[in-house]
Amino acid sequence: MKKVLYFLCTGNSCRSQMAEGFGKKYLSDDYDVYSAGIEAHGLNPKAVKAMEEAGVDISNQTSDLLDMELLKKADFVITLCGDANDNCPAVPPHVTRWHWGFPDPARAEGTEEEKWSVFQSVRDAMEKRIQEFAQSGK
Hints:
Distance between the termini: 19 Å
Helix content: 40-55%
Shape: globular
Order of helices and strands: EHEHHEHEH
C-alpha cells in the first residue's frame, strides 16, 4: 500500500504545485502525492512554465484547499512556507510533519529576468530536496 505525501503552502499556486509535480516524478512508486493550500490562489502560469522547462507537466494540476480528511490519512505532511507552517492545523500523532522553507517565487522583485531566475532557483532547489527525500526517506 502506498504512503500519502501531502505538500502544503499558503495558496497552492507555486511551491506546493512544483513539489507535487516532482513528488509524482520521483516518488510515485511508493507514494500518492498531493498538494493543497490554506487558501486556493489558482495555478501560477510561471510555475507551469518553470516545471515544463524541467520536463515535468503540472498544467493539469488544480489549486486545492487543504482537505482535512486527506490530512488525517497522510503519512507525511510537508509545509513549504512559513505561513502554511504557522497555520497548518494540528496533525494526528501518526503523521510525520516537516517544514521545508522555500522563498515564494510569485513575490520575487526586479526585472522579468530576475523574477524568472527566482522561479528557476526555487524549482531547482525543490527538485534537489525531493530527490534527497526519495533516496533517504527524510
